Amino acid sequence: MEFEFTEKNKFGQRHPIETAEKVADALRRLDEHLLQFGTTEDRAAFDLACQQNSSVVSSSHKLMFLRCELFNVDLAAKRLCNYWTARLVLFGEEKAFQELKLETAMKDDMIAIELGIVKVLPNPDEEGRTICFFDPSLQNRELYTRESLVRCLWYCFHVALERESAQQRGIILCVYPRNAKHSHFDRGLAKMFSDSMKRCLPIRIGSFQVCHPPTFFVIIFPILKLFLGAYLRNRICVNGGSDEKVLKKLNSCGIPSSSIPEELGGEVVVDNETWKAWLKERKQSE
């Protein structure tokens, strides 16, 4: 069954118009395709996940990959297998097949996640996209490994995808490097982040908002664009100038002030105390 699509939005994206019948048909075709997809090695981690804990490869899990790839079954199968291959390497076999929860698969990464380098904001944009807020100035490499911080990124993106509209319409990645130093830029970490977003995680980036870039940003920006690839490069919006100008630009992109952190002139509190309270609530609810 073919999907119809919406008109392009302000970010140039079109979204499949879902019906229960078409979604069920796509899931059936994906399951059939996975039986013969790629090589045994390509499917090894996915097959192991099915054997170890079938609940983590449920229909709802597979649907995220179909939505990410606009219901292209072959691309969804490829991303799904890439995801499980990367998850096995990143988390190790002991944790890879556990649910991504703070007290299970993430229990050894609490130092990195409590720093709040990557946060999930409570309110979406006007189209229902979840907003993830990244402040590189909060990094402290002496406290955690690159891999631990990448696991935090994976966890936050999975939380973001709990909102169904974020699966369907994408997420907003809001980067706030105003207080960052050149030493905070980690080429290896940037590549690991971009590889996860481009090849593995079932996310569509609606827009990549860089707000209040520091002066050295002109040096690292070409490197970032190289890592991100053409698709993500086309989603980047660099917002400089006064606080009022940046806020107005975000508002014009469909991000209301009620969804924007106070650091950018909005209404959302994202300080350390608030973030730790959010983590405590997550632990209780997971």
Automatic annotation (TrEMBL):
Annotated CRAL-TRIO domain residues: 108-272
One MF annotation (Gene Ontology) recorded for this entry: phosphatidylinositol bisphosphate binding
This protein's GO CC annotations: membrane
A UniProt-annotated Pfam family: CRAL_TRIO
Name used for this protein in its record: CRAL-TRIO domain-containing protein
Species of provenance: Leptocylindrus danicus
Taxonomic lineage from the root: Eukaryota, Sar, Stramenopiles, Ochrophyta, Bacillariophyta
